[in-house]
Amino acid sequence: MLSQAARTLPGTKAQPDVPIIAVENLVKRYKKAEKNAVDGISFTVPAGAFYALLGPNGAGKTTAISMLTTTLAPTSGTVSIAGYDLMTQADLVRRQLGIVFQKPSLDLNLTAEENVRLHATLYGLYPYRPLYRLMPSAYRAQVHALAELLGIEESLFKPVKTFSGGMKRKLEIVRSLLHRPAVLFLDEPTTGLDPESRRSLWDYLRQVRAESGTTIFLTTHYLEEAEGADGICILNHGRIVSTGTPQQIKAALLQPTLLIDAQDREQLRAELQQKGLPFEEGAGFSITIDKQDIHHLLKSLATPLSLIQTQAPTLEDVYIQIIKQD
User: Fold this and answer.
1) Stretch 156-163: mean pLDDT, rounded?
2) N or C: the chain end with fewer CB closer than 10 Å?
3) How far apart are CA 41 and CA 44, in angstroms?
4) 3-state secondary structure at position 251
5) What structural domains and CATH numbers belong to the chain?
6) How far apart are CA 44 and CA 220, in angstroms?
7) Which PROSITE patterns did the record assign (predicted)?
8) How far apart (Å, rounded) are the C-alpha atoms in residues 215 and 14?
9) pTM of this prediction exceeds 0.85
């Protein structure tokens, strides 16, 4: 468990009812470009939320994330993070952010703790000491609390070059949480990880969020990782093409699919054709139908059914349809 001190976010001006991230008409146009890389996007993220920014390659995700994390200057628009203005208070904004980049930024020749200690010194959290035992007790307690939370306490003093990909990601999260950020940005955090490491990492991230109340802002190409998000923003060609909860986005675009089959396929096929229902035939008869009409259809069929199965659309199904339509 994190201590009360580790759960507090010092220096943040954000209030419970005020979005931790507020983006309005954000634009980025690179020099000599004919179009905006990010074209007037607006969205808000509540404090403590899990929010996902999705889109194909070239959609503007990297540019948007770069602006939100202060590494790229916007052309126009306004951004507020934890109550601070991105344009005029960039230094204060940076202190509210933890960032885990797609490519690891660890020094492989240092131990895990030495990587964390260097980060703490660069952020001005603690004075640098050449040995761990000489660091302030508050630092040592905080590092152990975070390492214990992510399950790497026994590896703190081992060289990072001996770590697996999953362990390196966990260490980066420990390092990024050391200054107790209001928002943790995760840019493709599981790229290159095997399925077991991906699952383990997300288990730890859920625990971190529950323990610390940190807002998580994710970009990913693994759409199943965004299924549990509180909010999603889908970009394409620099513009927002869909936004809302996963459930809202799915409900607005795709209906559930009913899969039915029968011993007497010819009779069932004839019934469906008589009712004027479009279907696809394969392992059964796949019918796209409104949820409230499924029960009525099943009651109306005279053919005895051998298979009845409903299939809800996934976020990936909806995402592909949105990108194709745009």
Assistant:
1) 94
2) N
3) 10
4) helix
5) 4-244 (3.40.50.300), 256-312 (3.30.70)
6) 19
7) ABC_TRANSPORTER_1 (PS00211), ABC_TRANSPORTER_2 (PS50893)
8) 12
9) no
